[in-house]
Write a structure and sequence with these properties.
The protein is α/β, with parallel strands linked by helices. The chain has 16 helices and 16 strands. The strands form 4 sheets. An 8-stranded parallel sheet has the order 4-14-13-12-11-10-6-5. The chain has a 3-stranded antiparallel sheet with strand order 1-2-3. A 3-stranded antiparallel sheet has the order 7-8-9. A hairpin with a 4-residue loop joins strand 7 and strand 8. Helix 7 packs across helix 8. 51% of the residues are buried.
C-alpha cells in the first residue's frame, strides 16, 4: 500500500521546457490545472482578488491565485469554508490556489504577538480576539481550505535585524518546517503539495544552511521568504543569487511577496518561477497604472485633458478604450469604476509581462528582451516597492 505522502506527491510535478541563461520556462501540473511558469499569482487574500470578478482574473491569463491562512482563519473561518465546499467553490475559482501559511501576517498585522516553540500567539487585527497559530494548525487550516499548494509555517522578521535574531528565526522555521511536513502527511489530499520556505535574511551562510536543510526534506517545491521586508532591491537580488544555486533544478522556486516589474524580471533572470504581490491591485485602487511605457499616476493633473488611451499594447479593454482624461476623472472623483478599471489593467499587464518572459525564454532571446523591457517599462519606476 502506498503511503499518504506518496499519494500526495504523485499528481504534482514540475518540468522545465526551456532555459535562457538561468531563466526557466516550464509547467507545474496539479489536479486542478497546469500553471505556466514563470507565473505571477494575483493575490486573493480573503477569497477575492480585490475589485475583480473571478472571470476577469482568469481571462487576464492567470493560472493560479493566492489566498491567506491568517485572514481566512479569522473571517469567515476555515471550518465554515470547509462546510461550504472548500475555498475553490466558495470563491468560484476552479484553478489551482496557493495559500500562505499566515506567518508573515502574524508578524506584520497582529496587535500583540508572542513567538514560542509551539507557535505564535497573537491578537486579531480585526476584533482583538486571541488566537494560537502553530505549524499543525496552519496546515490544518490550509487543508480545510483545500489549497492545492500549501506553505510551511515560518517566522518572517523585518530587516535589517541582528544576525543572532535572523539565525534564531531561521532555525525555528526549520523546526516548524519539519512539523508542517508531518501534519501535511496526515491531512493532505492526493495531488496537493507542501512548499518549504528558505529564511536567513540577507546572510549568505544562513540562507545556504536553511536551503540545504529544507532540500534534505525532499519537499515538492521551495520558496524564498523574508524578502521585500526592508532590505532593498540590490540586497534582494544578491540574496537570490546566494540561494538559488542550492535549490533543486527539478522543483519549482517561489519568491514570496515580490514585486515590481523590475523585481520580477531580475528574479526570473536568476531562476525564480513563481511570484505573488499586492502591487497590481493595491496600486490600481490608488490610481497608479502599469503600462508598456512605464508607470502612470492617473492622479496627476497632466492627464486631465489627455484624450489618448492609456496603453494600446494592453489586451485589457479599458486600457485601450478609456482616455487618460477619463481615468483621471474617475480616480480624482473617487468613483469605484476607476479602481475596478485600473486593477483590471494592472492585473492584465502583469500577466502579459509573464507571458512575454515565457516566450522570450522559449525562443532563447530572454537576455535581449530583459534589457529592452527594463529600459522601456521600468525607466520611471522606483527600484523596489514592498507588499504588506
Amino acid at each position: 500500500m502506498q503511503s499518504k505522502r506518496e499519494l500526495v506527491s504523485k499528481d504534482f510535478r514540475y518540468i522545465t521546457h526551456a532555459t535562457s541563461g538561468a531563466a526557466r520556462q516550464g509547467e507545474i501540473t496539479t489536479p486542478r490545472g497546469v500553471i505556466r511558469t514563470p507565473a505571477f499569482m494575483p493575490v486573493g487574500t480573503v477569497a477575492t482578488v480585490k475589485a475583480l470578478y473571478p472571470e476577469q482574473v482568469k481571462s487576464s491569463g492567470a493560472d493560479i491565485v493566492l489566498a491567506n491562512t491568517y485572514h481566512l482563519m479569522l473571517r469567515p473561518g476555515a471550518e465554515r469554508i470547509a462546510k461550504l465546499g472548500g475555498l475553490h467553490s466558495f470563491m468560484q475559482w476552479d484553478g489551482p490556489i496557493l495559500t500562505d501559511s499566515g506567518g508573515f501576517q502574524v508578524m506584520s498585522l497582529s496587535k500583540i504577538r508572542r513567538i514560542e516553540e509551539e507557535g505564535a500567539t497573537f491578537q486579531s487585527h480585526i476584533d482583538g480576539s486571541r488566537h494560537m497559530l502553530s505549524p499543525e494548525r496552519s496546515i490544518e487550516i490550509q487543508c480545510l481550505l483545500d489549497a492545492d499548494i500549501q506553505m510551511q509555517f515560518d517566522e518572517c522578521i523585518a530587516l535589517p535585524a541582528d544576525r543572532s535574531e535572523v539565525e534564531r528565526a531561521m532555525q525555528l522555521s526549520l523546526r516548524w518546517a519539519e512539523r508542517s511536513q508531518v501534519a501535511f502527511s496526515k491531512l493532505a489530499n492526493p495531488g496537493q503539495a507542501l512548499f518549504g520556505i528558505v529564511q536567513g535574511g540577507t546572510d549568505a551562510a544562513l540562507r545556504r544552511q536553511s536551503a540545504e536543510a529544507l532540500v534534505a526534506m525532499d519537499l515538492p517545491g521551495y520558496a524564498v521568504g523574508g524578502l521585500a521586508v526592508g532590505e532593498g532591491h540590490d540586497a534582494m537580488i544578491e540574496t537570490l543569487e546566494n540561494v538559488v544555486p542550492f535549490l533543486p533544478e527539478d522543483k519549482p522556486r517561489y519568491l514570496m511577496g515580490v514585486g515590481t516589474p523590475q523585481d520580477l524580471i531580475e528574479a526570473v533572470a536568476r531562476g525564480i518561477d513563481m511570484f505573488d504581490c499586492v502591487l497590481p491591485t493595491r496600486n490600481g485602487r490608488h490610481g497608479l497604472a502599469y503600462t508598456w511605457q512605464g508607470r502612470v499616476n492617473l492622479r496627476n493633473a497632466c492627464h486631465a485633458d489627455d484624450p489618448s488611451p492609456l496603453d494600446l499594447k494592453s489586451s485589457c479593454p479599458p486600457a485601450r478604450a478609456y482616455s487618460r482624461a477619463y481615468l483621471h476623472h474617475l480616480v480624482r472623483s473617487g468613483e469605484y469604476l476607476g479602481s475596478m478599471a485600473l486593477t483590471w489593467i494592472n492585473t492584465v499587464f502583469f500577466q502579459q509581462l509573464m507571458a512575454e518572459m515565457r516566450a522570450a525564454i522559449a525562443d532563447g532571446t530572454f537576455p535581449a528582451w530583459k534589457e529592452e523591457t527594463l529600459e522601456r517599462v521600468v525607466r520611471n519606476a522606483p527600484k523596489t516597492e514592498t507588499s504588506p
